Amino acid sequence: MKTLGGTTTRITIGVTLILVLALLVPVQAAQAATARAGTLLGQLTVTTEVRTGYDRSLFPHWIDADGNGCDTRREVLIAESQVAVTRTGTCTVTAGRWYSLYDGVTATDPTTLDIDHMVPLAEAWDSGARQWDTARRRAFANDLAIPDALFAVTASVNRSKGDQDPAQWMPPRSAYRCDYVVAWIRVKHRWGLSVDSAERNALSQQVDSCGDPVVEVPPRA
Ligand SMILES: [Ca+2]
Ligand SMILES: [Ca+2]
Which ligand gives the minimal distance to the CA of 164? Predict the structure, then answer.
């Protein structure tokens, strides 16, 4: 009886341990890895950039990847509106309320907004995408998997940014600059894109002035 009781106790402890582990493992897996922004920046390859051969049409964009009738541009408008959008049956977004993070302008008419690629398509080309196939460039140009890749902003501020990187252009709304460089670094890290040395220095200075924040490590694309 004593032996049987000991066996039962060991089995009970064993089962309890398995249950505890089963509960712990998914919790740990669900926690996103974090790192200092400066650490992610340090993991980017520093090299010169090459514009040769770039054409915007090499990045098919505003596709409807999930086939719900709303293309990527409209998906971003719907996701970023502060109120439920008004839209037609063919997913034309006609009204909503958006806060353009780069310049602090609130807009209700979506025709006044552009969807900005945080890392512009030309900058992506220069820093590695020229070696990608079309499928990967399409995935980059329509990346809805992280919130940092695409932003609804005023057409005017998007045009002032153009193809420029943070060594050349920063958002006029200074309160957004810390988040801006973190988003830039996260997108480049996610897609394995390089930085040029002037860009790296500008990012590094901005990250330092922001206190080198701890950020989520984005999933690799
Ligand atoms: Ca869609
Ligand atoms: Ca650059």
Answer: 2
R_g of the chain computed on alpha carbons: 23
Shared domain check, 26 and 39: no
What is the pTM (predicted TM-score) of this model?
Answer: 0.86
What is each CA distance from 217 to 48, 100, 105, in whole angstroms? 25, 25, 29
- Residues 101-160: tens digit of each pLDDT: 999 999 999 999 999 999 999 999 999 999 999 999 999 999 999 999 999 999 999 999
| Domain total of the chain | 2
162-195 pLDDT, tens digit per residue, is 999 999 999 999 999 999 999 999 999 999 999 9
- Distance (Å) from CA 49 to ligand 2 centroid: 7
User: Which residues are paired to 153 by β-bridges?
Assistant: 114
Which ligand has an atom closest to residue 91 CA?
A: 1
Residue 67 belongs to domain spanning: 33-216
- 187 C-alpha to ligand 1 centroid (Å): 21
- Does one domain contain both 10 and 76? no
Query: What's the angle, vertex CA 182, arms to CA 111 and CA 187, rounded to 5?
Result: 70
Classify strands 34-36 and 86-87 as parallel, antiparallel or unpaired: unpaired
Could you tell me the distance, in angstroms and rounded to a whole number, from the CA of residue 95 to the centre of ligand 2? 35
Quick one: 47 and 84 in the same domain? yes
User: Domain for residue 221, yes or no?
Assistant: no
Judgement on whether residues 14 and 53 belong to the same structural domain of the protein: no
